[in-house]
């Protein structure tokens, strides 16, 4: 199979008046979206951009991002979303990596074509291509991974198509369902739900800063969250299947307190834990909460093997490579596998992810995976987030230090007593700090390392 039918055209032909995008003040049907996407393609074609051109967009309005990504998919351009939260030097680094041919942005960039778009424009008779080449590049997603250096991960239509198919086989979604776009559209997790909904003929809803309000305003049945978002929702009494249409909750982006996941089950939801990466176009493995404690079963169209404890991946969802200023870097080793940098093991048919190889450190001659300590801390009923980093030590080389967020005030003695039967002495943190608030939904380890190396920093409090 070298191409697939266009899912947008399929839905347009089968159910043109069915809702596709829910907004605070209006609902766009598949017909409405097709009309706008066709107009957007026409506007982009007026700039004489050849197929494969990289079009940048500073991610500020989610609806525009969805329309632009659909236009790029069907017009043959490459969608390059840039986070609006980047600092000036990060923004310049992103522009250098992406080597854009055009950009939709209020800021003029030298040597890059600026495009003005009429987002409200719509054609009366949409023209949507009937087929989409699987090899066509659709987007570049910026990810720093664990190195802190930006990488642009290439996604082809094959990657996005089979990623969505594999997810939908495990997490059922029907034309009557609606997935809330609750993750940023410049991240792979935020983009992936678009394709899951589109292939199923379902709808998506644009989220607001207050997720709890969205769940009552829209007919939400599916929700993607990182642990921080789940924690906030669980602190609202109305977050229950008795009050909401919501049924399926997909949690990813890092380890999550197992007690919080159980609370989802108690409130009538079906929760899933997921392990994935940008390089694998979102999910790799997923488990339903209550069925084991690992990262779950490998989804269809993915392949995985362990080599010296490292997770190696390949399959239809694996990216063609990294893009860097016009150069393409392959992800594959000589045998055709991608080395994820994650350590794992099998427990029966479930994958257990132990942590990043580059997070691992040696304490007194023993290997320590910070993620193992984080998971132990997250089993404490009051701990809602935990990050462990290494601190230099004259005697042991490195010792673990923990940053935690909790529902209530927890003392040092309480933490030590809780961890004693769960972790060997050399794995238990020697210091604890409150986890500071940071921009974005995922904590940056390097930021915490920098804070720890600045003794006069008043933004954190040590737990005594």
UniProtKB/TrEMBL annotation:
EC number: 6.2.1.26
Ranges for domain AMP-dependent synthetase/ligase: 11-323
A single GO molecular function term of this UniProt record: o-succinylbenzoate-CoA ligase activity
Keyword Kinase recorded: no
Domain AMP-binding enzyme C-terminal residues, every copy: 372-430
Keywords of the record: ATP-binding, Ligase, Menaquinone biosynthesis, Nucleotide-binding
Protein name: O-succinylbenzoate--CoA ligase
Species of provenance: Celerinatantimonas yamalensis
Highest classification ranks of the organism: Bacteria, Pseudomonadati, Pseudomonadota, Gammaproteobacteria, Celerinatantimonadaceae
């Amino acid at each position: 199979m070298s191409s697939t039918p266009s899912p947008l055209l399929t839905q347009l032909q089968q159910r043109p008046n069915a809702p596709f995008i829910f907004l605070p003040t209006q609902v766009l049907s598949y017909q409405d979206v097709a009309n706008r996407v066709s107009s957007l393609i026409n506007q982009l074609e007026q700039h004489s951009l050849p197929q494969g051109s990289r079009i940048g967009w500073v991610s500020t309005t989610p609806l525009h991002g969805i329309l632009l990504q659909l236009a790029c998919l069907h017009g043959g351009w490459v969608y390059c979303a840039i986070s609006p939260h980047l600092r000036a030097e990060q923004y310049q680094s992103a522009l250098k990596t992406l080597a854009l041919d055009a950009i939709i942005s209020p800021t003029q960039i030298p040597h890059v074509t600026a495009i003005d778009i009429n987002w409200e424009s719509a054609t009366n008779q949409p023209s949507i291509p009937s087929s989409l080449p699987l090899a066509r590049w659709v987007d570049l997603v910026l990810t720093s991974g664990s190195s802190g250096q930006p990488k642009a991960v290439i996604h082809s239509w094959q990657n996005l198509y089979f990623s969505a198919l594999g997810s939908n086989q495990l997490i059922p979604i029907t034309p009557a369902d609606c997935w809330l776009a609750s993750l940023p559209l410049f991240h792979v997790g935020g983009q992936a739900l678009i394709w899951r909904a589109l292939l199923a003929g379902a709808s998506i809803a644009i989220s607001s800063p207050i997720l709890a309000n969205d769940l009552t305003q829209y007919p939400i049945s599916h929700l993607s969250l990182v642990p921080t978002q789940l924690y906030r929702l669980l602190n609202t009494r109305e977050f229950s299947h008795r009050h909401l249409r919501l049924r399926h909750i997909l949690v990813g982006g890092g380890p999550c307190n197992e007690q919080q996941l159980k609370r989802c089950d108690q409130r009538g939801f079906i929760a899933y834990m997921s392990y994935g990466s940008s390089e694998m176009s979102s999910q790799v493995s997923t488990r339903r909460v209550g069925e084991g404690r690992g990262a779950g079963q490998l989804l269809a169209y993915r392949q995985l093997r362990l080599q010296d404890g490292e997770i190696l991946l390949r399959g239809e969802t694996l990216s063609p490579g990294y893009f860097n200023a016009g150069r393409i870097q392959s992800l594959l080793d000589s045998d055709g596998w991608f080395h994820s940098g994650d350590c794992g093991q099998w427990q029966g048919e479930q994958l257990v992810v132990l942590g990043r190889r580059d997070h691992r450190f040696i304490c007194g001659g023993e290997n320590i995976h910070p993620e193992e300590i984080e998971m132990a801390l997250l089993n404490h009923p009051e701990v809602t987030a935990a990050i462990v980093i290494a601190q230099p030590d004259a005697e042991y080389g490195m010792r673990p230090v923990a940053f935690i967020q909790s529902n209530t005030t927890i003392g040092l003695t309480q933490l030590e007593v809780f961890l004693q039967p769960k972790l060997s002495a050399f794995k238990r943190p020697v210091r604890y700090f409150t986890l500071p608030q940071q921009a974005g939904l995922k904590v940056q380890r390097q930021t915490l390392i920098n804070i720890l190396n600045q003794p006069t920093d008043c933004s954190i409090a040590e737990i005594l």
